Structure formats: C-alpha cells, structure tokens
Amino acid sequence: MDPTNKPKGPSPHYSLYQREVFRRGGEEGMLPSFSVHPEELQESTKKKLNDRGYFYANSNAGLGWTDRANREAFYKWRIVPRTCVDTSTRDLTTTIFGHKIPAPIMFAPIGINKLYSSNGELVPATIAGELGLPYCLSTAASQPIEAVAAANDKAASVRNESNSVHQYSGTNGGNAKSPRFFQLYMGHDDEITLSLLNRAWDAGFDVLMLTTDTWQLGWRPTDINIANYVFYYGGTVGNEVGMSDPVFMKKHSKELEQDSGKWIDSSVWHGKPHTWEKIKWLIKQWKHISGGRPFVIKGIQNAADARMAHEVGCEGIVVTNHAGRQVDGAVGSLEVLPEIVEAVGDKMTIIFDSGIRTGPDVFKAIALGAHAVMVGRLYVWGMSHEAEAGCRHVIKSLLADLDITMTVAGYRSIREDVFRNKDALRYNPYGVPPAKDDHAKL
C-alpha cells in the first residue's frame, strides 16, 4: 500500500483508494458516510429513498428466486489463488468494440435515475466519463439523450486534460474515448425508433444495445403493493426521452395531456414482442445510420439464442436475466455463461450482467469468458446516498476491490491470466450463500 513503492504499469493503482480511505480516517477523522459492503449498502439505501425509489431499484420478479440464483451462482465458483507471482503492477485493461478501456467494467442501463438523485442520469454519465468506463443510457431515462451525452463528454474532457485518473501506459494512455452505448426499448412505431437511433448517433452513442427481455414488465409484487409505476403519476419523470423526441411529440403531444403513460406504454414496455426478422431490420437501420458501428442484443440466456444473434448480424450479446426482474425461478446468468461462451465466444463480444457486487465477481465472470461486465444496482445505491460523490465512491471501491483481488490472488493481467481461464476457478456445486440474517451469527 506504499505509494512510493508503486512502479507504473498498464493500469492505475486502483488499490490505493483503500489506502486513501484509511488515511483520511486516521489523519483527519473523515469516515465514509455509508458502507460499501453490498448488503449493508442495499439496506442503508432504504433510509435514503422513499418506497417508490427503493423498490423500483430493488424489486424482483415473483418471489425473487432468480435474483437469489444470480448470487448463488457466484458463490459456487471459487477463485484458485496463485503465489510467488509478481503482481506489483496489474493490467486490468481490455478492448471492447475497438476501444481500449482501463477495466472490464461498464455502467448498465437503468431507467428513471431521478428517483435516486435530482440530476438523474447525469450522475453516472459523469462518473463514467471521469473514470473512462463505458456508459449505457436507457430509453427509460429521466434525462434527454443529448444532455446525458454532454455530461459524459464534459467529464471525459476534464479527465483527458488533467490525465490524473488514467496514468497507465499503452497505445492510447489515459486519453482513450470509451464507447457510449444506447440501450433501446423498441416500440412498434418505426418512425419513432429511427428518430431515437439518429438522436443517439448524433449525440455520440456509438454502440446500439437492444433489450429483448422486457417488452412486458415481469410480475413484481413489491411494486404492485404500492402501485409503483412513476410514469403514471403525472409530470415528466421517466418520460424525458420521449418528451424530448420531435417525432414522438409530433404524433402524441395531445394524447400526453390525457395519458401521461403514453410514452412508456407505446414505446418502452409495449406488450408485444419482436421476432428475429425485426431484429434484422433494426440492425440494417443502425448500420446505415452509424456507418457500421456495433449492434448488441441484451437478454441472452441460452446458447441457441446466442447463435441466432450471431447469425442475424449482432457483434455482441449481453448475458443477463435483467437482474432477476423478469422471469422468476429462472437460471442464474452466471450458470449459463460457460455454455454461451462455448457456443459463440470466438465470434462475438460477450458482456455479462446480473448479480455483480464485488471485485471477485468481476474476476469470476471474466474467467468464465465474458469480455466485460455491467454494474447497475451498485451505482444506483451509491448515488442514492450522495449523488456524484456516492456513485464515485462505490465505483472506485469496486475498481479497488478488483485490483486488490488480482494482486493478492496472484493474477497480473485480466486478458492474459484471467480471461477464459477456468483453471483460475474451482466449481463447488454444494451450498448457498448465507442469508442476510445469518451474518449476525458469524
């Protein structure tokens, strides 16, 4: 932890963030205002948000068994540490769709961020820009596409000018532009879809990600209990992308006066699924608009769908069960990752989502074949506490956790030593993580 004994390497010494926190506490008496232990962080978020905000971020389908399956799947894979390995510098960098990024971590698309902080999506977009990590904007966002892009660009520009966050060596140093993803919920009005695609491209979103598992909301009892659907409560929160869209407003502005849920019902969770034929059409449109930039499908949970995604022209997939929010009693996403990697891993970029909480979780997903992971609930919990400062604290803690895990487990390079290295893991089919109330007994 001695910063004077840290030679420069391919990656920043994210591990020093732990030392920074310790020294602030010891020398200045400044302690973090909230815990970054994932379970404690989720629990403390209840005190920061009203019920609508808390349950929108944390509700699951049905009894929550799929959410639990996500965590159990991580528990069953165990890291195999190595010793006498020189990990004085680490290489956490990876490349995704032609962009070199400092760590294999992305900001997942989460809607209605104004439920967690008044600036909404501007918060995570700013932190992603500061850290050089990819950011993905949801169609159900509570800020216009253009405003989010501007916040992300501004933070990235400051980072590049100071070059103080990314002091790692490499072909593009700390000034590489990270990819910006636009996550599309595609309704059945093609004119509106094309308007969204053009807006996203014009604003600098250079990867399109189509979510295919949420054309209909899953059965979520904890939201039903409090009629938790903010789009119907009047105002603009959750409808900002639609209300800032010229095509949607030209067609539906008068209807909005009577039906505040017109945007969300017709264009986001529209109740009628698309087929692979429509996906082909969308890929063609995006390629034309963007000049051939990548197209990704989010919601893959089996090898057959992964192969089909490749056949229709997708460059990437997101292996996810929507964090357990859609189908209750389903497989954990990490359970199916190895078979999906075996089916298409040499042909496509594979992003993993659902259940990431810690640095070791990131390590395990990469070892099982993911090129990068997406983090969602963690950054929402952080911004719910202290907006930008809270979001920054949580993500820098996650980066430090990953960096320290690599250091003490004896793995220097994410790409060379961890990526698709099943020898770095041991599978144990027995046991499940302890329930929350068991921690007090430990």
In the CATH hierarchy, what is the architecture at level 2?
Alpha-Beta Barrel
**Low-pLDDT sequence parts:** 164-175, 438-442
Which class best fits the helix and strand makeup?
A: alpha/beta
Query: DSSP helix count?
Result: 17
Radius of gyration: 21 Å
Shape: globular
Instruction: Quickly name the level 1 CATH class.
Output: Alpha Beta
Give the mean pLDDT: 92
Q: Mind telling me the CATH superfamily name?
A: Aldolase class I
Order of helices and strands: HHHHEEEEHEHEHEHHHHHEHEHEHEHHE
Placed side by side, the strands forming the largest sheet appear as 4-11-10-9-8-7-6-5
Strand content: 5-15%
Biggest sheet layout: 8 strands, parallel
CATH topology heading:
TIM Barrel
Integer count of domains: 1
Helix content: 40-55%
Question: How many beta strands in the DSSP annotation?
Answer: 12
Report the span from N to C terminus.
Answer: 29 Å
List the helices and strands and how they pair.
Layout: H1 16-28, H2 38-48, H3 51-58, H4 65-76, E1 77-79, E2 94-96, E3 99-101, E4 105-107, H5 122-131, E5 135-138, H6 145-162, E6 180-184, H7 190-202, E7 207-211, H8 221-224, H9 240-243, H10 246-256, H11 262-268, H12 276-290, E8 295-300, H13 303-312, E9 316-319, H14 333-344, E10 349-352, H15 359-367, E11 372-375, H16 377-409, H17 414-418, E12 425-427
Parallel strand pairs: 4-11, 5-6, 6-7, 7-8, 8-9, 9-10, 10-11
Antiparallel strand pairs: 1-12, 2-3
Helix pairs in contact: 2-16, 5-6, 5-16, 7-12, 13-14, 15-16
